[in-house]
Design a protein that fits this description.
With 275 residues, the chain is α+β, with helices and mostly antiparallel strands. It is 29% helix and 24% strand. The strands form three sheets. A five-stranded antiparallel β-sheet has the order 10-1-2-11-12, covered by helices on one side. Strands 5-6-7-8-9 form a five-stranded antiparallel β-sheet. Strand 8 and strand 9 form a beta hairpin. Helix 1 packs across helix 2 (85-109), helix 3 (159-165) runs antiparallel to helix 4 and helix 4 packs across helix 5. The chain is globular and about 80 Å long. It starts with a strand and ends in a 36-residue tail after the last helix.
Length: 275
């Protein structure tokens, strides 16, 4: 299993991935799921991948040389000369379909699903930042101001904090903190996601990034974040009033007195009808 998340903000982009893969309870390995493509001053792109490891590795290899025909008669389009992130995402989609055409039938005969999910984002000189989620068929969707982040892999545990915190005007450092909390929540609840983590922060219009780090068990910031998040969650939980079931005074009664929705009716014998 995998967990990858990417966020597009007004101030820039944040990318985070774990590195655990497993093919059974006793076969756990570490493979990096993030790759950065950068030509300083011209383009910055980051690719995150989840799903079948053999498929995603093949896609990443083929992406280096994949070409699309230019309908205007120019040189073939690659991720290195694409004039827009949309065209670069089209090249990635073509690479996914290339791998499917080569391996899909053989995988199916072996009972293995062709499964890959990818997040691809960045900026090419002359346009703004863009973020895409790419599916196994090679098709993709683009992030918007209403949906400024994408997740692939084991996404459910880390989504609530993203939903509550992330907005287009969120500062980059705050977003980086948020995605790390999202990852920490996932690590806590799912053993198939694990350290080390790869984190990249990209500032808008820089067309390069030096904010790239690998986070392992010894990282002091991540240890602090893990301990503090757990402690603060407990403090917030303890500060919420317990439900009351008697006549004790409370401004927030749990027992409903409304007539519209009545409490569940108990069945007391076999002759009673359920409805």
């Amino acid at each position: 299993m995998t967990y990858c998340v990417a966020v597009k903000l007004n101030a820039g982009m944040v990318f985070l991935s774990d590195s655990r893969t497993n093919a059974g309870l006793d076969q756990i390995s570490t493979f990096r799921k993030m790759i950065v493509y950068e030509k300083p001053g011209d383009r910055f792109m980051c690719l995150l991948s989840a799903g079948n490891l053999s498929v995603s590795q093949s896609v990443r290899e083929i992406l280096q040389v994949e070409q699309l025909e230019d309908v205007d008669g120019g040189e073939p389009i690659t991720i290195w000369n694409a004039r827009s992130m949309f065209d670069a995402a089209r090249v990635l989609g073509a690479a996914v379909r290339h791998v499917y055409e080569r391996d899909g039938e053989s995988l199916q005969r072996a009972g293995v699903e062709f499964n890959v999910s990818m997040i691809f984002g960045g900026q090419i000189q002359g346009e703004g930042m863009r973020l895409f989620q790419v599916y196994s068929a090679g098709n993709f969707i683009e992030a918007t101001s209403e949906t400024p982040f994408f997740q692939v892999g084991e996404s459910k545990y880390g989504k609530p904090v993203l939903d509550r915190v992330i907005a287009p005007d969120t500062p980059l450092d705050e977003a980086a903190k948020c995605v790390l909390v999202s990852m920490d929540s996932t690590l806590k609840s799912n053993l198939s996601v694990g350290l080390p983590l790869d984190l990249v922060v990209y500032e808008a219009n820089q067309l390069q990034s030096d904010k790239i780090t690998c986070i392992d068990n010894d990282n002091p910031y991540f240890r602090m974040l893990h301990n503090t998040w757990g402690q603060k969650l407990r403090e917030v939980f303890d500060s919420i009033e317990d439900p009351t079931w008697d006549d004790a005074h409370t401004d927030v009664p749990l027992l409903s007195t409304g007539a519209r929705n009545q409490p569940l009716r108990k069945i007391s014998n076999a002759r009673e009808k359920l409805i």
